[in-house]
Fold this protein.
Amino acid sequence: MRVQRNNPSKLARFIIELCSVFLGVTLAFALNRWNEEKKLRVTEEKILTEIKNGLELDISDTEVNISGHKAGIKAATTFLKLASGKEVQKDSLLISYHTLWRNFISIQNASGYESLKSRGLEVIRNDSLRYQIITLYDFYYEMIEKLEEEYSEMQYTEHYLPEMRPILHRHLMFDENGVLVGVKNRWWLYQSEQKLYFELLNRMIENRRFTIRIYKDIQKRIQLLVSQIDKELAKID
């Protein structure tokens, strides 16, 4: 009876072929994973850059609104002076009358954040950075938008003008086209009007000051976030 023995050379070839197949599959999987990871990093870099560009525009836009609210405070102060018998320049009065009621909208350049949400928030690997982005857009931006556009106290034309118009128009002069041209020499208020007049103007001033504080806080958060994004982009590069 013959005993069949394994051929060492055949066994070696089999092991080599098996290892080759395993190595090939492993390398293919690793290469595919590397390619996918590279795509994610390219996507992350693109989205972070887009968010950063939008934030830099937001800083400029918030500065415009801050300047507008400061002008509104100056306008309210002008009309407080008028009621106190202080002299006010005609040109200053004309500007102040229109600036007094001006409302603002919160302009947000959020295309980068929308891209992030559509791709998936997990595209950003840095948990802290991702949290800062979400907090800014979903909390602080939403807060200032509601404050500027929905909160009735901050709607100066709709909320204050109806009560102030009868008082102001009794002391101001308009031409046939309804354009403000000056103020009457004698400025006086009924006793029943005094409290309302000063209360409304001071409320407008305080509301605008409050809004400015919110904007400045948001500006600081934007600047910090831009700095964090720059650091993250440097890591990706």
